[in-house]
Structure formats: structure tokens, C-alpha cells
Fold each of these.
Amino acid sequence: MTHGVLWPSDSLDFESKYLTTIKDYTLMKKIINFYRQHNLYGEFSNFYQAHIEINGSIWPTTEHYFQAQKFPNNPEIMKMIQEAETPGTAARLGRSRSFPLRKDWEQVKDGVMLDALRAKFTQHPHLKELLLKTADACLVEHTRNDSYWGDGGDGSGKNMLGLLLMKLRSELEENSEWVVC
């Protein structure tokens, strides 16, 4: 059971209520930065090569799955993304506005990401162990390339990927509290 949770069960959009910036809430916690899949803690990157199975389909990476979910009404585009040779190619295809994006994407994207992360860290025991070993550290996708999923490079971003990983870490621990860093 979780106590003192700062994550409303009905919404993934809590930062406006509880958080200001990464700089404000990381001052007193251990921070683990991650970004590139080949660097330290690169396993937390969506580009890290760890296949996942969701609803009977195998996806090469969480990035492949996430990008494909933007187009649930277009199986051809989903298949093209699923079969993309690299996660970078999958990301480029998913970010292309040549294809019509699902109308509710902004409302569902955090949940889609959390589903992908749950699959990744429950289907690969070594990744689950790595995530749990981070204990109460603040996990930060440190990149100036993304101020929604990452920290914007200077701590001004939302760091949603890091926040979702910390939420998942809490779920995977028995009788734990989810502590916001």
C-alpha cells in the first residue's frame, strides 16, 4: 500500500499541484541522470534495446511501442513503426506529422508511456532490479532536447519520463511510499 502519495490516482498531471521545477525539488536528494542508452543508467532510456510484449505484440523497444500508439487507427503506420530498424527511426516516424495523430494523444500519452515502462521493467528482471536499486534517488532524463519527457537540460523541464519511472519503482516495491524528489 502506498501512503503519502503525491500522484493522484485519477490523473498523471500532478506537477502543477505539487512540483515547481526539478531544480527546486532535487536539491537534497541523490540524482541519477540518464539519457543515452549506452551510458550509465542508459537502461532507463526508451531507446534501450529491451523488447516488450503488450497485447500479444512484440515491440523492439519502449520507443517503438510508444510512437506506434499515436496511430491506433492506422495499422500500416503502426506496423511500419514496429518494424523500424532502430528506435531513432521509430521516433522519427512517430513524430512525423505526415500521418494523422490520434485526437486524444495529449490526454493518453502519459498512460501509454507508463504501460510501456511497466512492460519493460516487469518483463526483464535485471531491469526491474536496476530500477529498484535506485532506492529513493531522483531519476532525471537529462537532455536539452526535451522539456516534457526530460528536464530541458537545465532543470526547467517536466521530466515526465523520470517521474513515471519513480512512480513505477514505487509500484514495484512492496509497502513503499512514493517520495517525490
Amino acid sequence: MSDTHSDSAPSVHDSSEDRLAGSASPDPGDAGLEWLAEGSVTAAAGFRAAGIHCGLKRSRPDLALIVADASVPAAGMFTTNRVQAAPVRYCREVLAGGRARALVVNSGNANACTGAQGERDAAEMALILATALGAEADEILVCSTGVIGRNLPMDVLRTGIPAAVEALSAAAESADAAARAIMTTDTVPKACACRVELGGGSVVVGGIAKGSGMVGPDLELAAQGGAAHATTLAFLTTDAVLEPTPLAAMLQRAAEGSFNSITVDGDTSTNDTLLLLASGASGVAAESAEDRLLLQRAISAVAQRLALAVVRDGEGATRVLRFDVSGAVDEGQARRVARSLANSPLIKTAFHAGEPNWGRLMMAVGKGDRGIDPDSIAIRVGGLEVVAGGMGTPHDAAELSRRMTTDEVVIEVELGLGAAAATMWTCDLSAEYVRINATYLT
């Protein structure tokens, strides 16, 4: 099996390019944020990137680098799957020091379930890049995505990583090449960046991501422990001046409203990684409470745009589903119910076909948390009330079907128990998802 898939993914089509960084009703307000045309991971000053084909895949790009001009504050969040790829464990150790110089990412091979050899290979990837940059190996982060259970062909990486170093540039084209090099079954690259004005001047936050299938992240900070879901890689950069501790706190807050609030199929990956590096190249720090709020908004907004791009590019997806759960006793209850709804194959297939079966929504709400009061549930689909007091309400089935098949559908669930709320995003489930996942190795 794979954490994503191999080189059989469809190629990028011009007709879908406009999906890569669009925003499906993001929660963080855009007020005060300037979204940059062709914004990506090198939009923030102090970073270069590269993406090349080194031979891990048959023909598509498969090796990416993101390099800071010097060692910089860095933070990471990782899959909570108990089966973790060698690069995940390696990155956790590097980030214990709160700093990094560069990131090397390969696609086509997950380097997961590869034992001691996989650990050695991840460390060697870091050493190769460190040597080429004149850096220390413990400053290098390593990520992999692709087929699980196969050893990396290190011969192609020994030549490929130095070749990628030669291609490093801060140009938008290099950032785009990096975004394409981390893709697996993705059909489009995913990138965005914004500028925000702080008291001392402007700073930029940018990033790239990949993800299409085996997506249901529940990421944790490098120093934490836990258990849950995942399959996404996302790399954020900023030129703001930030120390490691506040940087990690901002990343954690950003993840809750973005990558920890999406799912495609609810399956748990071995390789999920979310990283944030701060070059400080702008010379601008978030000194005041207002500045810190604005910078948090920018980081959260970039993370959410990238996360929603993953949902829109879900394997076989034709629409985005947003589940807004309110009236919960606490946020945990709201998130459990929202996740139950978003991970239901019956609900996802119903929205794919426009099948007006609201009973499936009630089923998923009820199984999401044992504290639910069935008689207090109210549900609206695309603004149309279909349930009140736990019972169906009179509505036009044809109109419900129409509202279920728009590009983005908002499903509002009121539990009637308290004041807490949560949102989850997912996509519909189509026959194309089955085809992709029934044939990914063949």
C-alpha cells in the first residue's frame, strides 16, 4: 500500500490550474491581507526552492528543496499514526532544537516501514544536502511521500540532491517546480502567499502543499504525543522575525482551522508533515498584540487556503462539503460530530449524486458523540431546512438535490446543547476515487 501513490497520477491539466490556490470560503478573515499573484513558498524573503526529476518516478518531478539563507527558527507538526515513516522520526529529532536550514522532499517513495535501512537513508539524504550547502546535517529536514514499504533508491538521490541544489532560486518558477515535485496523485500544484502590514513594516507568509488521497490529518507538535489520522505535506515560510516558541504556537493554532479540519477519506498516513520556517529577512517582528494577531491571521489563512486546495483536489472529487456544527457542549463534541459527518461514505456518495437522503446526516450526527440529544438536532443543507427537533421538515426534494450538487455545499448542524462550534471540510466520493485506489500500483 502507499501513503499516497506512485507515478500513475494524472498529469496536470490547464483546465484545472485555477483550483490550486483558490479559497473555498475560508474562515480566517482576509481583512488586512494582500494575496500575492503567483505567491508560493519563496514569496517570503530569505528562501530559495527547486524541483527536479531525479529518477524516483518514471518522468514527473520527484525531488524538491526549500532552503533558507541561514539556520532559522522552525516548527513542525506530524502525523499521529503510530506507524511513522523514517523521515517523520528524523524531523522530530531535528526540530527538538527549534531551528532548521533546509528541507529535502522526495515523492514516489514514502520511506515508511523500511526499518533501520530507512532510518539510515533519511539521515543520508540530510547529510547529502548539508554537504552541498555547507551546512550541518542536524539543520536539515527530510520528508518523503509515495509507496510504503520500499527502500529508497539512494543512488538517484546521491546525484539528484546536488543537482537540485544547483537549480535553487527564489524565482516563482522554482517555487512552482518544488510544488510539482512533491505531488503524487494530486492533479494540480498547491501554493499561495500573502502580505500583511505590521507596525514595523510588511511581512510575507507563503507555502506549498500536496495531498489528494489518504487525507484526514490530526497533526501534533513535534514535542507532543498522541494518536489519530493523516496524509498531507505542507511547507510554510515567512520572513517575519519570530523565535521558535511563538512560532510553534502560531503553527499549532493555524493547523486547527486548516489541516486538522479537513478530510478526504479519513485514512491515516505514515508521513503527514506540516512545517513553518521563519527567515526574519524582513527585519519586522510582531511586537504588539495587534501585530501578533495580524501575523497569526496571515499564517492561518495561508494554511487554510492550502488545506482547502487539498480537499478540492481530493481523489475523484467534484465538490467541496463544509460541515458547520454548532450548539455543542464543548469544541471536542463539535469536532467529533463534524468529523463523523465528513468521513461518512454514505453522506459523501449522496452528495456526489444529489441523493436527497437527509437520514444519513442524522445517522452520522448520532454516532459522532454519545452525549447527543436526538430531539434537539436541526439541519440545513445549502440554507434549506431539512431537520428540526430531530425530525424531517417539509421541503422540496428536487430543490434539496439541486443544493446538494453545487460546487461547494454548506451543511449546518445545530445540536441544541451549548455554545461551542466546529467546522470540517471534505469532498464528495465518486466512482473515480474507487478506480484510482483500485489500480494505483498497476
Amino acid sequence: MLLESKNVIFRGAPGTGKSYLAKQIATDIISKGAFDDYTQLTAEQKQQVEFVQFHPSYDYADFVEGLRPRVNADGSMGFELQDGIFTRFVNRAQKNYDDAQKSAATIAKEASVQEQMADYFSNLELEDYTPTTARGTKFYIESVDERHINIAIPDNKVANKLSLNVDELRQMLESGQKFSQVKDLVVFFGKRNATQQYTYDLALFNDIKAQRRIRTKVAVQRVPMKPYVFIIDEINRGEISKIFGELFFAIDPGYRGIAGEVSTQYANMHENPEKKFSIPENVYIIGTMNDIDRSVDSFDFAMRRRFRFIEIKASERLDMLNVLGDSKKNEAIRRISALNAAISSVDELNENYQVGAAYFLKLATVDFDQLWNDYLQPLLQEYVRGIYGEDEIMAKFAHAYGANAAVAGEIDDESENQG
């Protein structure tokens, strides 16, 4: 169902194992049916799954992108644009999607360049090494990460710090072209004017090309397309329009890829402001929500149209209790069934208020009375708060569950008094 629909939301009563089911399905898809236990995934496979829980203060900056404080090399404070968790996840999926379209020859070329760059930067003594531009300007490489090469230019009194784009340097090396002057880069990148970064890109390009190294033959095979599953727990507890922003359009199953490209809110701050954001075909989204949560009613209707809703009933997830052993499992199922029947019999409640099997997994460390006193009773008291006769209703629940005799006997005492 997930592979067909792209986006699904599991809805139902609390404790029905919706989050656990989401991880099971993600694991099953990623392992191609080999297993459904998330802990069995390899570290590499776990990169294909991401889990986040929405809450009222969760926002666009957490999810898509936003400005975050950073300490500059000189100790001063500044801000930088950082990707949110969903953007980082989509970037991983997009890379796999793009790589799956490439030939073995292209992959071999990219792997060779990646090795070449890694050799160059790993062998540098960053503080001592000073590359030089075509005009003789010396600069230092302060740090290198996945996206940037941060350099210092002591002789530049106007801008003595600069951040170079790793991807631009990689593209130059992969192209197989020769670059002898800055204007060659302007043409290559399709720009109207040169940037200050191009001067230093050219210097590093020539330096890397000139390095002597033993070339190893990289074993290459075509990259298979992989599924990537993003799980949003309690999706309805966040302010959806604030979190997703313009991504409403991009997550639509009918507008994946180029058809659903959008400009994000901070596009003008990107290194390439013209680059659009899109979600590739190999991304799948699973949300979970509790039907009794007050925020369900305010769940954005535009978002509802983009998800397939699947109800998870309390009676459907009893298999979770297999870990308890037969004796305790059978007793737990008996009590769940009796308690949920009592809950559904209250006019103001319905099956959305039933108790799921996940609560009973706590029986691994507590007994049935402790489960009632510390977990189930407080939950049910919230359900019946404000309902006429709430004490009698709670006594009825306790009796159905089979709580300790002192509590369960209250309903019998009240019946005798009424008689």
C-alpha cells in the first residue's frame, strides 16, 4: 500500500502500535522482505529511514531549512543557512535516484574524482600548506566538510575569509576539461560574471590535477534504485502549513520529481538561487496520528488530500503481545477485550478511545495491577473527565479490566446501595 500510495497515515486509538508498524513496514521495504525488525538493518540501510516526531513548536527551520547561529573562525557570532532533517533526507534519496540513472562509466569517473579529492585534502597539513592563485595570492585551507572548503586569504583586507563550493570543484574535475583562466569557469557554469570564488576554485583545481598519486582501479557497478522512508510520528500535533510551507505541492504523489519543483523560502540565500527543491520518486512518507487527539480536527485539508488514511484498530495489533509468552499474552488479550468493550459501551466514547496492545507490553516489567494503577487508570480518567457519572464509569472500567478487588468492588457496592 505504501509503494502504491507514496504517502500514508496510520490513524487509530492510542497504543495500537502505529509507530512500531511504521518502522516494521519501512524495514520490510528496505530489506526487500528479508525482515521487519528495524534493529536488523545495517548502518547503511538505516540511512534510508528517518524518524521525526512533530510537536507544537516544530517549524519550517527544523524540517526544511533555516538560519542557525554559528561561531566564525575569528570567534565572532554569525548565522548560516542549514538544511532541516527532511531536506537532508531528501538529498540522500535524490543522490541515490540520480546515481541509479548513471552508466557504469560515469560512476567510475565520479568515484575516481572522489578518491582524488579525498587524497588531496587528507594529505594536506592545513595550517602549513599555502596554495597560490594565478596572480600569486596565497591562501590557507582552514577546514573542509561535505559541502564547503573554507579558506583564509591573509593579504585580502576586504574579504579575508571565503567559502568555496565542494560540488563546483567536483564538477570541474569530473568534466575532464582543462581550465586555464577564470573566464573558462564562467562559461562552464553558465554564468554571466565571475565570482571571487572562481579564482580559488581554479587554483585548487590545478593543484589537485598536478598531485602525484598512485591511481587505483575502482571496482564499479551500477547503483540500484533504493526506497527511502520518512516517518512522521504524531503528524497532526504540528502546525502542518508552518512546517511544510511550499512543500505541500512537492509531496503530492502526482508531482514527484521535476513536475513538483518549488523554490524554498530561503532560495535567495542558496549558492545557486535558481536551484529548485523537489522530492524524487523513491521517497515514501508514513505519518501516524491518534484519532482522539484534539488537533486531528484542525489537520490541514490540503494535506489530507495528499495522504492515504489507514485505520489501525486495537483488535488488529494483538500480535505485538507475543513477546510476553503464552500465559501472560492470553491474559492480556482477555483483559484488553473486556476493557475495550466497556469503553465502547459509554455513549460519549467510541472505539477511538479503546486501549491498544502497546500499553500491555509494559507487562514485561510490571504486573497487571501496576499497569492499571500507573498507566491505564490515569489515561481513562482523562477520557471520562467531565462526563456525567465519571466515578461509576471508572469503576465499570476497573471491573472489566479485573483490577484489584478493592477498586473493582466499588461498582458492586454502588449497585447494592441503589437496590
